[in-house]
Structure formats: structure tokens, C-alpha cells
Design a protein that fits this description.
The complex is a heterodimer of chains A (about 280) and B (about 300). By secondary structure, chain A is mainly alpha-helical. Chain A is built from twelve helices and no strands. The relative contact order of chain A is 0.13. Chain B has two domains: about 50 residues, no CATH class; about 240 residues, MetI-like fold, CATH 1.10.3720. The chains are: A mainly alpha (about 280), B mainly alpha (about 300).
Chain lengths: ~280, ~300
């Protein structure tokens, strides 16, 4: 059995893996390093990887320069609202899509793919005009609505995969035992589906937390803007002068999604797999 | 539109369909509607409205009513050299990102599928870029590319490879520089999908092939690739679309500069719509983008599918 490669090949594999990890990690490490550097070191002609005088001043300055906390709360409200609504709406539909193989389910899964092909401009211009007529431009509920719709196809797809992973025989057995349809759903299906629902919700949360384009177009009042939009204000006019606070703010904006992602990482990948393989 | 007609048909056929009894079907509708209505109203509807807008002279802040102007927007687009420049850049970007993204992700997925030490750690680290907001990815790479305080130029100086340069504002380097960022940002998703595909390839076949004395490359060609092909095809097609339609990364990195060298079609259309208020014209751009990406994709998929039958 020579499936295990020889020692030289193994060494090569480790070297390649190391190169990959370096490529993937170095920008993030540099962000980390920049965020803790005092201005003097940032202006130095020979920047170092490890700050000589690590400081938290950049973080303080970042909060002073832009309403970061406020923006983070906006992001949190929008992302949480969108995630909860998307999951509430998508779960029943996904159940039906997965259990009943109608043309509807096929059309829904088809739309997941077709919908991807359209550039956002083609959607955002009419959406902007419609929301403007409804006085929902520059409003948080308007953005939440957009995010829900934006997350729905993917949520449907992921959830349908999770539903298929719950054996239909279990539900049939419960029915044979005399449990009604609702009873079966509540006490047999729901507990098995719960982790998948949570994973889908968190995924929708991250997508909304990270989203930029719709927020840029739809929110004009500075007090309503979400974190990614506020972050771009650092980049704008001053540019070079403010590298430290810029890095600090960017780092803070990433932490929530990193934490959530770390929690659901395994589930998301298995959910993608379920959706992809079984549909 | 396809969705609407398809659902109508399914409703008519429901009673003799495979979906069980009549009542179950009606209950199903009730459960699907909460998801279907928002999608129809806020996704399918706006799309159709957007296509219609492309044939009007809709503008922001105008008092006169919007009129139908037929294909005038498209005729103007045909002679808009700035748009076609941007279009060419968009295609360069989309292909330039998608191809290396796929090759690098395939390599990483194959590595992560081996029984290497630190595999769990590597898998976790490999998807970090996926979790980051695109805006943060852009900011991060601006710090890397920064001419003075950036790590790239410093490393080049250390290695004695010259003084480095201002990567994002150089006419020649800006597009390659943003392409590298695009590859970096999209790799994790592709890797995870390919890895999932790899884990579905039958292990017994691998072992049998190894017993027959097939080397690593032959095993890959004969066993791994045929099993992985559908996933690889799907992920590449999706990446191509996503990359062609991407916006935030380049907006943060260069805002389309220097001199429009990185002005992707999405940035161009965004400016046209929301800076100059030319809604109709921008919608026409969107339509052209959809049309071209569909054609490219159809050619790609047809070519790959035919290639599959030959092999």
C-alpha cells in the first residue's frame, strides 16, 4: 500500500502548506501589527513586523475620529434583524422545498443560481427607486428588508440541505405512532433541524454584517450608516496620515464576524456540502 | 419571470404531481409564500423593472416625467469608449482572478485532504479571509501595498530588489495588484467547496489505483478529477460571475483609479447611477453586463461539458 507518500514528498507537502498559510495569514498579521504601532513607527522608513512600543492609542483615536460604536450598533441591529427574519421566513419554505419535490422547489433552487448572475446595479437602481417611493431609502428597516431578500435564496438552499439530512422515516414513524403533523414537526423535526437553523442564521448575520454595496447606496445619513460604510470614511480624504486608527478600526470590525465564523465554521461547510451534493 | 411561470405550471399540475394529496399541497403553498413573496417583490420584480428602466431616460432630480426612449441608451453605450474600456478591464479582472483562484484553491484543497499534521489548524486559518468584511480586506491590503509603511515594499528592500513602488497608483501595477487581492479574498470559499467535493471521491478507487501502480498524477487524472469535475465546474462558473460583478474590494482599494485602470463595470455603473443620477443609462449597462456574462458562461459550460464527453 503506497498511498502514503515518501518522506521527500511529505516534506514538499508541508512546505507547500506552509507557503499557503503564509500567503493567507500575512496581510492579517500586518493589519494586527499596524494597529498597535505608535505614529512614529508608522512614519518610519523601515517598518517592522513587531511594534517596538505597542500602543492602544490608535484604537482610542479611531473612536474619536469616527462614530465607530454607533456604527457597530447599527450594523448589529441590521444584521440581527435580517438574520432572524430570513430564517423565520426561509425555514418553512425550505422544509417544503426539501420534502415535496414539486416544480416550485426546482424553480426556487434554480433562482438561487440565476439570481447570482445579475449584477447588483441592475437590482439596486429599481430597488432604490421603489424604496424611495415608500420612503424607505436612508432607513434601517429598508436596508433590513433588502438584506432579508438578499439572504433568502442562500438560506433556503442551506436549510433545504439540513432538512434532507433529517430522515423522512423518522417523521413517518412518528405519524404511525399517532402524532399529528404539527406534533411531528415540533417534537421530531424541529430539534434535529435546530443546529442547522442556527448555522444558517449566523451565516445570514455575517453576510449582512459584512455587506457594503447596498448600505453604501441606501444609507445617506451618517448616524444611520453601518460599520463597513463608516470604515471607508477613514480611507477617504486623509489617506496616508491615519494608517494606525484605520488599522485599529478595521481590526475591530472584523472581530465579530471572525468569532461567529469560528463557531459555525464546521456547520457551514457541512451545510454547503449537504446543499450542494443532495440537490 | 422563469420562476413565476414555473410556479404557475406547478400549481396547475399539483393534483397529479408526485407531491402527495391536495391538502398537503395547499399547506405547502401556505408555508412557501412568506419566502416567495419577498423574493418576487424585492428580487424578481426589481430585476424586471431594472430591465425596463434601461429603455427609458430615467434620471435623478428631474421634474419632467420619464419617457420611453427605445434602444437609445444601448446605442449610446455602443459608442461609449469609456464603458468598453471598463468592460475590458472587468473581463481581465474576472478571468485573472478566477483562474488562479481555482488553481491555488485546488492545490490547497488537495493538501488539506491529506493526512498532514496541523490540518485542523490549517483548515481553520484557510477560511479566515472568507469571514472578513470586503471593506476590511481592502483596507488590509492597502496597508500591505502602502509605498512607505507597507510590508511589501519593506520586504523587497530587505531582499535587495529595489525600492519598491506605489503599487496601487502605478498605471501598470494597479490592476495586477488588485487581482492578487481578489484571488486572496476568494480562495477560501473555493477551497472549502473543492475540499467538500474531494471528500466525496471514493477512497477505495484510490487504493485500487495505487495497488495497480498508478502514480500520484495518474491517480489524480483517473480517479480524483472525474469525481471532482462537476463541483469544479460549478464553483468556477459561480466565481466567474461573482468576480465580474464584484464592487467593494476595488472600491476600497483604488476607487477605480489610477486613470480608470481598475474601473470595473460595476464601479462605472455605480458612478453613472448614483453620482451622475443617470438611472436609465446605468440600467442599460447592467443589462449589457448580464448579456455578456451569460454568453461567456454558456460558452464556458458548453465547452467544458463537451470536453467531458471526449475524455
Amino acid at each position: 500500500m503506497n498511498l502514503r507518500p515518501g518522506r521527500a514528498a511529505r516534506g514538499g507537502q508541508y512546505a507547500a502548506l506552509l507557503a499557503y498559510l503564509l500567503f493567507l495569514a500575512f496581510p492579517f498579521l500586518w493589519l494586527l501589527s499596524t494597529a498597535f504601532k505608535p505614529p512614529r513607527e508608522l512614519a518610519s522608513l523601515h517598518p517592522t513586523w513587531i511594534p517596538k512600543d505597542p500602543t492602544l492609542a490608535n484604537f482610542r483615536q479611531a473612536f474619536d475620529e469616527q462614530p465607530l460604536l454607533h456604527a457597530a450598533l447599527n450594523s448589529l441591529a441590521v444584521a440581527a434583524g435580517a438574520a432572524v427574519i430570513a430564517v423565520l421566513v426561509a425555514t418553512p419554505a425550505a422544509y417544503v422545498t426539501a420534502r415535496l419535490r414539486t416544480r416550485l422547489s426546482r424553480a426556487a433552487t434554480g433562482w438561487v443560481v440565476v439570481g447570482q448572475a445579475f449584477p447588483f446595479v441592475l437590482v439596486i437602481i429599481p430597488l432604490f427607486l421603489v424604496l424611495k417611493n415608500l420612503r424607505l431609502v436612508d432607513s434601517v428597516p429598508g436596508l433590513v428588508m433588502v438584506y432579508v431578500v438578499w439572504a433568502l435564496p442562500f438560506a433556503l438552499w442551506m436549510l433545504a440541505g439540513y432538512v434532507r439530512a433529517v430522515p423522512a422515516e423518522l417523521e413517518e414513524a412518528a405519524a404511525v405512532d399517532g402524532a399529528g403533523r404539527l406534533r411531528t414537526l415540533v417534537s421530531v423535526t424541529a430539534p434535529l433541524l435546530a443546529p442547522g437553523v442556527v448555522a444558517t442564521g449566523l451565516f445570514a448575520f455575517i453576510s449582512a454584517w459584512n455587506e457594503f454595496f447596498f448600505a453604501l447606496v441606501l444609507l445617506k445619513t451618517p448616524q444611520k450608516q453601518t460599520l463597513p460604510v463608516v470604515l471607508t470614511h477613514f480611507v477617504g480624504a486623509e489617506g496616508v496620515a491615519d494608517l494606525g486608527p484605520l488599522a485599529a478600526a478595521a481590526l475591530l470590525a472584523t472581530l465579530p464576524s471572525l468569532v461567529v465564523f469560528a463557531i459555525v465554521q464546521r456547520r457551514i461547510t457541512s451545510g454547503l456540502l449537504a446543499g450542494a451534493v443532495k440537490s | 419571470m422563469t420562476l413565476a411561470t414555473a410556479t404557475k405550471r406547478s400549481a396547475r399540475r399539483a393534483p397529479d404531481g408526485p407531491g402527495g394529496g391536495r391538502t398537503a399541497e395547499r399547506g405547502a403553498w401556505f408555508l412557501v409564500l412568506p419566502a416567495l413573496i419577498p423574493i418576487l417583490v424585492l428580487s424578481v420584480g426589481p430585476l424586471l423593472y431594472g430591465v425596463a428602466l434601461a429603455f427609458t431616460d430615467a434620471q435623478s432630480g428631474r421634474t419632467a416625467p420619464t419617457r420611453w426612449i427605445g434602444a437609445l441608451n444601448f446605442r449610446d453605450l455602443l459608442h461609449d469608449t469609456l464603458f468598453w474600456d471598463s468592460f475590458r478591464i472587468g473581463l481581465l479582472w474576472a478571468v485573472g482572478v478566477t483562474v488562479p483562484q481555482f488553481l491555488l484553491a485546488l492545490g490547497l484543497a488537495l493538501l488539506l485532504n491529506q493526512e498532514l499534521r496541523l490540518r485542523g489548524f490549517a483548515r481553520a486559518l484557510a477560511i479566515v479571509p472568507w469571514a472578513m468584511p470586503e471593506v476590511v480586506v481592502g483596507i488590509m491590503w492597502r496597508l500591505v501595498y502602502n509605498p512607505d509603511a507597507g510590508v511589501l515594499n519593506e520586504t523587497l528592500r530587505d531582499l535587495g530588489l529595489g525600492d519598491g513602488r506605489d503599487w496601487l497608483s502605478g498605471l501598470a501595477t494597479a490592476l495586477p495588484a488588485v487581482i492578487v487581492v481578489g484571488v486572496w479574498a476568494g480562495m477560501p470559499q473555493t477551497t472549502v467547496t473543492l475540499l467538500a467535493g474531494l471528500q466525496n471521491t471514493p477512497r477505495e478507487l484510490h487504493e485500487a489505483a495505487a495497488m495497480d501502480g498508478a502514480g500520484a498524477w495518474r491517480r489524480f487524472r483517473a480517479v480524483t478529477w472525474p469525481a471532482l469535475r462537476p463541483v469544479a465546474l460549478a464553483v468556477t462558473a459561480l466565481n466567474l460571475i461573482w468576480n465580474f460583478n464584484s464592487f467593494a474590494l476595488v472600491y476600497v482599494l483604488t476607487s477605480g483609479g489610477p486613470g480608470g485602470r481598475t474601473r470595473l463595470p460595476m464601479l462605472f455603473a455605480y458612478e453613472e447611477a448614483f453620482r451622475y443620477g443617470q438611472y436609465g443609462y446605468a440600467a442599460a449597462m447592467g443589462c449589457v453586463m448580464v448579456a455578456v456574462i451569460s454568453v461567456v458562461l454558456a460558452c464556458f459550460l458548453a465547452g467544458r461539458l463537451r470536453g467531458g464527453q471526449d475524455a
